[in-house]
Design brief:
There is one protein chain. This protein is of the alpha/beta class and 255 residues long. It has a single domain, classed as Ribonuclease Z/Hydroxyacylglutathione hydrolase-like (Metallo-beta-lactamase, Chain A, 4-Layer Sandwich), CATH 3.60.15. Helices cover 25% and strands 27% of the residues. The strands form two sheets. It has a seven-stranded mixed beta sheet with strand order 6-5-4-3-2-1-14, with helices on one face. A seven-stranded mixed beta sheet has the order 7-8-9-10-11-12-13. The mean pLDDT is 97.
């Protein structure tokens, strides 16, 4: 099992998941050329990907979608309400639709998409289950609902959002309207909110946690880590490795 945050932040997001015989790309928020370059950096031929899954339609998650699908003839999985709404999916014949809450499979992985709250058309998180265990992914959400927590339980590895420090956002350069959007229930999770979600997901099988989608303007890695460590320091269920996603370099965990 391997997870690699190929890119994570406000300028572009993409995630590789490998488990068993399956290689999946989650989002393609940087150029196809840069995606292929970063895959090469971790020893993965882009042609070996089995599918691309999209969480939502914002540019920092779909920038390389069309070109990558065209270049690789890659199956792309889109939520039903989103399918047909994107201006460039590469090849229409490569599109597969899914519905919130309904499992589907790619090779030996069972995938469950679940609804999240974000200011986009039909945003989703995912859980991935196979013989090597379960992985959960949920970023770009304004609030961690009970559904989100339930779908992310019992994971070996998690990718969760710690987008901003509340004080840095409040005092930072963003216009007030944008600050309100980020802080809203359809915006992004703060470090504290990400920590609160993690607290609900701690169990003795949790091995690693990626902190994703950190804002370069409104956050710092050490602030996100401090918020998460405060949660970990008051429990004895597990001692997961904590990895902070980066915008410009891949970050990998393998087991």
């Amino acid at each position: 099992m391997r997870i690699c945050l190929l890119a994570s932040g406000s300028k572009g997001n993409s995630l590789l998941i490998e488990s068993g015989q399956t290689r999946l790309l989650i989002d393609a928020g940087i150029s196809a050329r840069e995606l292929r370059k970063r895959l090469e950096m971790i020893g993965v031929d882009a042609a070996s990907l089995n599918a691309l899954l999209i969480t939502h339609e914002h540019t920092d998650h779909v920038r390389g979608l069309g070109p990558l699908v065209r270049q690789l003839n890659l199956p792309v999985y889109l939520q039903t309400d989103l399918a047909g709404k994107l201006p460039d999916v590469g090849k229409q014949e490569c599109v597969h639709e899914f519905a919130d809450g309904e499992d589907f499979t790619v090779n030996d992985l069972t995938i469950r998409p679940f609804a999240i709250t974000h200011d986009s058309l039909a945003p989703v998180g995912f859980s991935f289950s196979g013989e090597q265990g379960k992985i959960g992914v949920a970023t770009d959400l304004g609030v961690a609902t009970r559904l989100v927590a339930d779908c992310l339980k019992d994971c070996r590895a998690l990718v969760i959002e710690t987008n901003h420090d509340e004080e840095l956002l409040r005092d930072g350069p963003y216009p007030w309207k944008l600050k309100q959007r980020v802080r809203s229930n359809h915006g992004h999770l703060s470090n504290i909110a990400g920590g609160a979600l993690l607290q609900e997901l701690l169990w003795d099988g949790l091995e690693t946690v990626f902190l994703g989608h950190l804002s370069e303007t409104n956050n710092r890695p050490e602030l996100a880590l401090n918020a998460i460590n405060k949660v970990l320091d008051i429990q004895n269920a597990c001692a997961p490795q904590i990895l902070v996603g980066r915008q410009h370099l891949p970050m990998t965990w393998a087991a």
